[in-house]
Design a protein that fits this description.
By secondary structure, the protein is mostly helical. The chain has a domain of 32 residues. Helices cover 48% and strands 0% of the residues. The chain is elongated and about 60 Å long. The termini are far apart. 0% of the residues are buried.
Length: 73
């Protein structure tokens, strides 16, 4: 049986290591960041927009970012 576990606290890694030494489990460490240095690459092209839709989307983003600089006081 294979189970994927996300380590939240390093103490859990120590527990897993202890269980491995007792031959209860086998730990396979997968380093996702090494295989994909930029975690955002899988989002490229995810919206599948036409050129017109893409330009409109970019305009909305630029306008929204411009609001951040506006003094509202």
């Amino acid at each position: 049986m294979t189970v994927t576990v996300e380590i939240i606290d390093n103490r859990a890694l120590n527990l897993l290591s202890d269980m491995e030494h007792l031959d209860l489990i086998k730990v396979n460490v997968l380093n996702k960041t090494a295989s994909n240095p930029n975690p955002y690459t899988h989002f490229a092209g995810a919206l599948k927009l036409s050129e017109k839709q893409y330009e409109y989307y970019q305009k909305i983003l630029r306008d929204g970012r411009g609001e951040w600089d506006r003094n509202i006081f």
